Amino acid sequence: MPLKQFICPDEGRQDVSECLSGKCRMGNRCAPLGYLRRAGATRPWKGETSATQCLNGTREEFLKITTDYAIKPGSRAFAVLGTRSHADLQAAGEEDDWSFVEERLRDEIGSGQFDTIELQEDGTWWLIDYKTSASFKLRKAIGIHSVKVPMKDENGNQVFYLKSGKGYKKGDPRMETVYQRGGEQDCMDWAMQFNRNRMLVEKSLNIKIAKLKCFAIPRDGGLATVKIIGQTEYFEIPFIADEVVTEYYRTKSRALIAAVELGELPPPCNADECWGGNKCRKYCDVREKCVELGCPWLAEKPEGEDEDGQ
Question: pLDDT per residue over 149-160, tens digit each?
């Protein structure tokens, strides 16, 4: 089923169709009509899974397909702006004869849609995807990790505590947190999606992909973020063996199709699918429905969880 309702600023609800027809229940729109149209758009279920659907939890996608649900229009802000940015970047690529832009490809498992395939000067093809992402997730994807190092003064001398406090004593060396690149990349979900699209491109378009590249923009890119990651980041995504990708997507696709056809509620999303429960608490569109059915992740916030989540 498509998205049914918008949750208004006063927490009241209105059918998306009524809102988009010009009948604002509050008498004063909370956003431009063009934005609301994009925020209220959903892909109709046609019995075929997409690469993105298979990355999400089977229960989450099942509830989106089989139940009415409501969202706050503002919750789609980054998705809407990301879609618009994708369109602008892809339109620029269409002017060239050395790239292919957004195209949906299919095989016996389902479908996938790449952003850009770009021919390089050395004759190789790169598959490139554009992402807007929380800085915390982007740091992990790039392989940026935090380490404690001795704090130095402006002359390069070690700084020491001048008095005792919680966890340290007078005279102990002071440490500070810095971020370093070169750590292990933690981007399995993106890697699965990129490699799924790579396989579809290689099979459908007969193009061999030499590299998978991500062009990412941190969506919370303030000054503190820019000190750690750039205003934009362009980095490689690792290859995953074809058989691993195929098995993952075939399993997830079959599970979702069977659940919809039989009308059987799938088990709760696993830790990877719901970011250890943080997606359930903050970002899941069908959270209310899942609460009614019993969501084990909607408990108190786990100790030590990063403020950015994920």
Answer: 999 999 999 999
Q: 212 is written with which tokens?
A: 């998978």
* Cα separation, 175 vs 108, whole angstroms: 55
Instruction: Give the lowest-confidence range in 33-42, 75-84, 203-212.
Output: 75-84
- Cα dist from 265 to 59, 67, 294, whole Å: 7, 11, 11
> Beta 99-106 vs 125-133: how paired, if at all?
unpaired
Strand ranges for 138-174 from DSSP E? 145-150
Residue 226 pLDDT greater than 90, yes or no: no
The 10 Å CB-count burial string (b at 16+, else e) for 58-73 is bbbbbbbbeeebbbeb
Tell me, what's the pLDDT at 306?
45
At 146, list the tokens. Answer: 């935090």
Q: Given this model, what pLDDT does residue 266 score?
A: 95
**HEC states along 261-277?**
HHCCCCCCCCCCCCHHH
**Mean pLDDT confidence for 107-113:** 93
| Two tokens, residue 271 | 């830790």
Could you tell me if residue 113 is left (phi over 0), alpha (psi between -120 and 50 degrees) or otherwise beta?
Answer: beta
Long-range contacts of 43-50 (CB under 8 A, 24+ apart): 44/2, 45/260, 47/257, 47/260, 48/106, 48/110, 48/111, 49/109, 49/110, 49/111, 49/249, 49/252, 49/253, 49/256, 49/257, 50/110, 50/111, 50/112, 50/113
The position carrying tokens 């016996």 is 108
100: its two tokens: 């292919």
